[in-house]
Amino acid sequence: VAKKILMGSGAVSDADLIEQSLMFNNPDTPYLHRTPGSAGNQKTWTWSAWVKRGKITSDAYLWSVYNGSTSGTYANIYFTSSDTLAYGIWSPNQRVTNRVFRDTAAWYHIMVVLDTTQSTANDRIKIYINGVQETSFSTTNNPDEDSDEPFNAAQKHVFGDVYALDPGGTARWFD
């Protein structure tokens, strides 16, 4: 049975709801989380989502994972305060687009593809927006060949924020 799911408050009519979708309202501090029972493939994976921004010019985290140690490793897919899209291990980011995403009326299909088994370094992380591969980046740092990245580890994964992973950090709720 299809359900309409709404996270956050605000005046939204039934006509504005999309089946099986989520709406995050920044002031409500919404997020989803899941901790896998065991690690999955950390060398090859694809993350894909349709995203519509509500708030610009502030960091907004889509998907994050943190191993929880004091020398911990964050990995994130997020919009930066400059409205670019970033993927990476904190720190350093591995990809930051030159392209900006400031249209709050537009839907963006974002797909991040990781394949550290690729022998060509620049083929290990690919980002697609609306079906077109991004090729212009302000930051390009490639993971080592055959390295395990933090996503799909048996650690807490969060959609919609990074603060839920590390309450001592700074909240960066998605809107």
Protein described:
The chain has 175 residues and is mainly beta. The protein has strands at 32-34, 44-51, 60-66, 74-79, 84-90, 93-100, 108-115, 125-129, 132-133, 137-140, 157-159. Strands 1-11-3-4-5-6-10 form a seven-stranded antiparallel β-sheet, with no helix packed on it. It has a four-stranded antiparallel β-sheet with strand order 2-7-8-9, with no helix packed on it. Strand 5 and strand 6 form a beta hairpin. The radius of gyration is 16 Å and the shape is globular.
- The residue ranges in which pLDDT falls below 50 over 5 or more consecutive positions are 1-12
**Strand-and-helix sequence, N→C?**
EEEEEEEEEEE
Instruction: Enumerate how many helices there are, as a single number.
Output: 0
Largest sheet: 7 strands, antiparallel
Overall residue-averaged pLDDT value? 80
What's the overall geometry? globular
Distance linking N and C termini: 27 Å
Sheet with the most strands: spatial strand order: 1-11-3-4-5-6-10
Class by helix and strand content? Answer: mainly beta
**Count of individual beta strands:** 11
User: What is the radius of gyration computed over CA atoms, rounded to a whole number of angstroms?
Assistant: 16 Å
Give the helix proportion (percent range): under 10%
Which percent band covers the strand fraction?
25-35%
